[in-house]
Amino acid sequence: MRIYILAASLFVFLSSAVAQNAGKISGSVLQNAKPAEGATVSLLRAKDSAVVKLSVASKDGLYVFDNIADGKYLLTATAVGHRKTYSKQIEVSPQQRIVQLPAFNLIAVEKALTDVTVTAKRPLVEQRIDRTIVNVDASITNIGASALEVLEKSPGVSVDREGNISLKGKEGVLLMVDGRPTQLSGADLANLLRNMNANQLDQIEIMTNPPARYDASGTSGIINIKTKKIITAGYNGSATVSYTQGHYPKTAEAFNLNYRNAKLNLFTNLSHNYREATSLLTIQRNLYNSTTDALENYFDQRADLRNKGNSYNAKAGLDFFASKKTTLGLVLNGTSSSTSSANRNTTTISNSTKDLQSKTRANVDNANDWKNFSTNLNFRTVFEKGKELTSDLDFLKYRGGTDQFMVNAYEDAAGNPFRKADTLMGDLPQNIDVYSGRVDYLHPLKKGSRFEAGIKSSLVKTDNDAAYDSIQYGNVVHDVNRSNHFIYEENINAAYVNLSTSLSKKWSAQFGLRLENTNAKGTQLTTGETFNRQYTQLFPTAYFQYKANDKNNFGANFGRRVRRPNYGSLNPFIRFVDRYTYTKGNPMLKPSLSNNVELSHTWRNQITTTVNYTATTDMIDDIIEQKGEEAYKAPANIASLHQYGIAVDANTPVTKWWMSSISLNGFNNRYKGVAGGTPIELSQTSFTAMTTQQFKLSKTLTGEINGRFRSGLLEGVMKVKAMGFVGAGLSQQVMKGAGSLRLSVRDIFNTLKFRADSRYGNVDFNFQQKSESRVVTIGFSYRFSKGKKVAPVKRTAGSAGEEQDRIGQ
């Protein structure tokens, strides 16, 4: 507690001690001589009309822009159903820091509201002081795509063959949806994102060094997926349907509706996805004699995989405006997903000279059912002078399970059975309950500074009772060696303070400190083994920004973060891929810690260059181990990681009809540690490039070409080969702009293929996987509205911090 008090006192003292000379511009907006609540006011540079800041008029029609640098500006005011209105040129200077403008008087357009569609073209990528923002609808080829495919095209983001997400070449990403972690990881997280329709998404926020308000989890940062929200009084909404054809069909439908009046805001989001796909996985393994190291056997495994699934997502909620300053909210989320996979697997075993010895033919069928339900209760009240208190209570329930059925048949080199076929059945449930609560306080200080503080507590319990049975001579026999019952309980308590302030006319800063106390207990009921861990950690953050002039902006930031093991990764139960290959958890995993430093330069809000360094200890990654004929993958604290990187993100208009977005990232990863008992020291320099080129072909027709390339890189102990793809799309506005038709093609040249190898100790593997990536999608979207634009409801991110990102394995 003394740490909190000292830190808070220090930040408040610093905020009151610094001087600043930033300007202030204020005024009001009227329509029909009444306050134009919800009107959008834009502050533009007079020189090139570039947007500097945006504001929304209050209930009294008032707006204000603080912290404005000296210079010449224009203002515009807009509202649905009214013409855009411009101010005269104004100037902020040492002689006039505070500018009070006369009222804007908006003029209604002649057409009825139902005949007018007002659209604003948002850029594909936006850069902020502490995050990169991707506007999902700004890309034509996102229509009909999954959330995982949208992430795959985002700057600095990579997705491996199993759906694991890395950021700028570093694993350990905390993935959130609307500020609430997904509580999933690995295959379960990948399935969630594959079944999430891109038409539900509004923005993707990418934060490599998140502020102290966010959970410290995620050594490489946070990715927050924001779903669509509507800010119109009255009612409005949208509906989208799409059809995708690859080797198999896929469909997606989404519907959004919002109704708002003076006291109540009601909203819902419904979607359905059907996906069917195929892929081919091949693995080559060399087995060596443990004594002589001579090659003994060669395994060649081929798996033909077919997956299909239906998922339904529903979100509903309300905001009750108890008074002008107090809002109460309720949000309900539910997901139901049923998927099945059929794996037709053939493994050939040869001797050292590659003469065929035997074949194993396996049929592996999995039926996965996943249901989750979450409830969020939130409260917000505003006191005098902009002070604000928010709180959240969250309850999340996850119920999932996998029924596995595997049959293996054995043949000799001549194709004759030489061993009795065996059958293995698995019942693998996952039950997870999360309780979480948080309170946050915002206190504006003098001259635009802000002080924030908050506390949070969460309790998580997971219960996994994995049961395996085999069929022997027609009888079902319980497999004691493979079955396991594992219970994990975890309590995390956290507190933070954060200060944002202007140090001078050109310098601004943000400082944060977060403390997290973790108490964890794991119990294997099958064996009686237990572990208990308690630890407390501090996570500081600091941001500095220097605005040299209108064209050049420099930044620097530092942050410390943690990656706690996923709940499923701690569970030692087994999941089979085939007779010779499986995955398992590791209850001995420790959290990994990272220190991240970034330096950046932004030119004209269009080109940002970032240099970064990251040092990670006890890095968690998957390793491969061999025990006789069997090979398994398990997570481990394998090494320390040092990464140096440089990234360039450019979002520039080439002409009036051509907008270019290019993201380049180069980095060097150095791993040093022990994997499977073998010392490792690996290093590789890698490069990724992505681009989206958009062309306005007519007033209503837009075209897009996009592409991504990733050179070879290290994913822990695995060396992944280069890969890339090219896509294209067209978007045609219809129905007077209320609707749009989109056509897109992904991976036009069918080049997206995963290839990797891993060699250390007695491990010698090669992997190849080709999934169904070349697909064609056609989609239709329709937007409807009846009402006026108002200020959006400021909704908190919920209290289920990192917990939602750590379910599964």
Structural summary, described in words:
- The protein is mainly beta and 809 residues long.
- It folds into 2 domains: 2-115, Immunoglobulins (Immunoglobulin-like, Sandwich), CATH 2.60.40; 125-805, Maltoporin, Chain A, CATH 2.40.170.
- The chain has 4 helices and 47 strands.
- It has a 22-stranded antiparallel beta barrel. The chain has a 6-stranded mixed β-sheet with strand order 11-12-17-18-15-16, with no helix packed on it. Strands 1, 2, 5, 9 and 10 form a 5-stranded mixed β-sheet that branches.
- A hairpin with a 6-residue loop joins strand 6 and strand 7.
- The protein is globular and about 90 Å long.
- The two termini are 36 Å apart.
- Mean pLDDT is 83; it is low at 1-21 and 111-120.
In short:
The chain is mainly β and 809 residues long.
Output the number of helix runs: 4
CATH top level of the largest domain? Mainly Beta
The assigned CATH architecture of the largest domain is Beta Barrel
CATH topological fold name of the largest domain: Maltoporin, Chain A
Label the overall shape. globular
Amount of beta strand: over 45%
Can you tag this structure with a few keywords?
mainly beta, disordered N terminus, 22-stranded antiparallel β-barrel, globular, 809 residues, 4 helices, Maltoporin, Chain A, Immunoglobulin-like, 4% helix, 2 domains, six-stranded mixed sheet
